[in-house]
Each structure stands twice: as C-alpha cells, then as structure tokens.
Design brief:
Layout: H1 3-24, H2 30-37, H3 41-44, H4 46-58, H5 62-65, H6 71-91, H7 95-124, H8 129-157, H9 160-181, H10 193-197, H11 203-223, H12 226-232, H13 238-265, H14 267-287, H15 292-318, H16 325-354, H17 359-382
Helix pairs in contact: 1-7, 1-8, 1-9, 4-7, 4-16, 6-7, 6-9, 7-8, 7-16, 8-13, 11-15, 11-16, 11-17, 13-14, 13-15, 14-15, 14-17, 15-16, 16-17
Length: 392
C-alpha cells in the first residue's frame, strides 16, 4: 500500500474513532448523567439505546440513499452533524433534547462507517484491501475501547459538559482532516435497492443476523451498566473504577488478534464456544463481592472475550454474504445495534425489577439464546452440500 493511501486510511480510522467514542462514551458516565439531569440510571441508559436504535434503523437504508453523493461531501456532512450534536449535549439541561441530540447523529452513523470501509478497500487495491480494512477496524476498536474509560476519567475530573466538549473536539479534528487532506470523491452509479434486497432471501442470512444481534445483546446488557455495577456491587473507588475500565479496554484490543487467530483456524468452533466462555465470566462476576484484585483480573479476561465477540459478529454475517461486503457491513451495524438496544433495554428492566446485580442474569439469558442461534446455523450448514461460508 502506497504512503498516501496509508495516510488516507488513518484519517478515515480517526474519523471512525470520533464517531464511536461519541456513541459509546456515555456508557462510562451514566450515573453522572442520571445525577445531572435528575433521572434514574435506567433512564440515562436510554441514551445508549436510542443511539443504537438509530443506527439499527439507518444501517440498511442511509448508505444507499447517499450512494450517489460525493463521498467527501457525505463524510463532511456526517462529521459536522456529530460536532453540532455534541455541542447541543454540552449546553442543554433538558433530557428530551439530550435524547434527540443523540438520535440525529445516530441516523448518519452508518453513512460514514460504510464509506470508510469501502474507500479503504478500494484505494488499497485487492492485495492490500484486508490490511486497509484492519486499520479502519482499529478506529472502531479504539472508539469502543477507550470511549468508556476516557469519558469516565474526564467526568471524574471535570463535568458532563466537559466530556461532551471533548467528543465535539475529536469530531471537529476529524472534520478538518477530511476537509483539508482528503480529495473530492465523486461516485459513479447508485446501487439498486432491489439488488440488495434480493440477497436477503436466504435463511442462513437471517439466522446469522439473529446471532449478530444476540451476541451484541449478551454483551451490552451487562457492559452498558458496568460503571454502576463496579460502583455499587464491586464497591470500587472512582479512580479504581476508571482503572478497571481502562484495563478492560486494553484487554479488549488484545481480543482482536486472539479472535483473528481463532477464526483463521476453526471459526465455527470459536464462535460455538463464545457463549460458554463469556457465561463463565458472568457467573464469576455475579458471585464476586467487593474484591478489587479479583475484579481487575476478571475485567481483563472479560475484555479479551468482549473484543473477540465483536470480531465474531462481523465474521458471522460477512461469511454468510461473502459476495456483498457493503451490504454485510450495513447489516452488521444495523443488527449489532439492534442487539445493543435490546440488551440495554432488557438490562435496564432487570435493574428496575431486581437491582443492578441482576444484569448478569439478563446477560446469561441472552447467551443462552445466542448459543441456540449458533447451533441452528451450524445444523443448517451441515445440510448444505456446497459450503456457503468461506472460512477466513
């Protein structure tokens, strides 16, 4: 890959980082949001749910609607909306306005992400496409990994408004990089919507999408409320809580190469074992009391499995649609966020009914459903003479 192509990919990766840190950063400050806006932690969790729901609804549609727009123009529009929405979050004292300021950028989220993956692969060429996409995934991972601990650390030292200003600043830098350092990217022809819909007739595709959503729900139902769990169940001090979240994030990055190795050797077995491994960690979390050292160890193990889980989701749908990577990316974003919405909502219901500790039970419920969907898909594959999946 030539140097100018590498530079372009890193700019795209930073743009992805800005979007993901905006999406997930609020997870680390839900208790603060609850106090600031005088709502419950469960209601504060709606900020996670509504963003995920927006991405889920927009994933299959918005990239297609923008398929005829100059790619640079589309990306600048999305990044500008993210800057403005974070500034609105910074200044408002109305929880309804806060929810709307989360929903609007969520609807634009799939446009930038799909363009970033597509541009990276096209500019790198067939030989280096996978390396370019891997660099984009680093932006995704960094946003997912550092969004929570960074927001938690900032909130502990400053305020909710300062966290929103930081999110706006990151996206503003990404906007300027796109404006000043990326060439104009006009597109040729639109992709027909009917062509994409015709690829959704396979039962294998739909059971794969169900698994994507359930894996996401099994992780989000617990992780969305992790700050409150560590504070009230593990009884961690604020600085220790932030350290725990940071260790979780670093371990999650390590989960990416672990998942890569597993998927390159025996992908079906790796995904099959995922709900069991995460289930053991959840059970351990449930029975651990206020033990800082034990919680730090569990956070590291949990982080590795969490990072691997994100890779398993992407593989599961990409392998079902090997000839349609753009559609697979849109559906991955859509159904992954459906899972986040479902998991966060059900987790909140468990909290409201039985207390914060019960989110573990919700996570185990989703893991059981995940295992069932994986088992069904594997049984379907055995009935197909020519393998549909291409192991990667």
């Amino acid at each position: 890959m030539e140097n100018h192509h590498k530079a372009l990919v890193w700019k795209l990766s930073f743009g992805i980082f800005g979007i993901l840190i905006t999406e997930l950063g609020v997870v680390g400050i839900l208790p603060l949001i609850a106090d600031t806006f005088h709502v419950s932690v469960t209601q504060a969790g709606w900020l996670v749910s509504i963003f995920a729901l927006g991405v889920a609804l927009a994933g299959p549609v918005m990239p297609l609607l923008f398929s005829g727009v100059n790619r640079k123009t589309a990306m600048l529009g999305v990044q500008g909306i993210f800057v403005l929405s974070n500034l609105v979050c910074m200044v408002t004292d109305n929880f309804t306005v806060l929810l709307l300021a989360r929903l609007i950028p969520a609807l634009c989220h799939p446009v930038y992400c799909t363009l970033a993956f597509t541009i990276a692969a096209e500019t790198a060429g067939p030989r280096d496409a996978s390396k370019a996409v891997a660099r984009i995934m680093m932006g995704v991972s960094a946003g997912m990994v550092f969004g929570v601990p960074v927001s938690s650390l900032l909130a502990g030292a400053t305020s909710f408004s300062a966290v929103m200003l930081f999110f706006a600043a990151v996206n503003a830098v990404a906007f300027m990089l796109t404006l000043l350092a990326m060439p104009s990217m006009p597109v040729g022809s639109r992709v027909a919507y009917g062509t994409q819909l015709s690829l959704l007739r396979s039962r294998l595709t739909w059971i794969s999408l169900a698994t994507v959503a359930l894996i996401a729900a099994s992780m989000a139902s617990v992780y969305s409320y992790v700050a409150d769990y560590l504070k009230n169940v593990a009884q961690l001090a604020p600085h220790t809580l932030s350290l725990t979240l940071l260790l979780f994030g670093l371990a999650s990055i390590c989960g990416n190469p672990v998942a890569g190795r597993l998927l390159s050797t025996n992908p079906l077995r790796a995904v099959f074992l995922f709900p069991f491994v995460l289930g053991v960690i959840y059970i351990a979390l449930y029975f651990v009391g206020p033990s800082t050292l034990t919680m730090l160890v569990l956070a590291c193990l949990w982080g590795v499995v969490y990072g691997a889980g994100n890779n398993f989701q992407q593989y599961w749908i990409a392998s079902a649609l090997p000839d349609s990577p753009e559609l697979a990316t849109g559906l991955f974003l859509s159904f992954g966020n459906i899972g986040i919405t479902l998991g966060t909502t059900i987790g909140g219901m468990f909290i409201a009914g039985m207390g914060i500790r019960s989110i573990i039970l919700g996570g185990l419920l989703f893991l059981a459903l995940t295992f069932a969907s994986i088992l069904i898909r594997n049984l379907m594959l055995r009935q197909i003479p020519a393998p549909v999946l291409a192991a990667k």
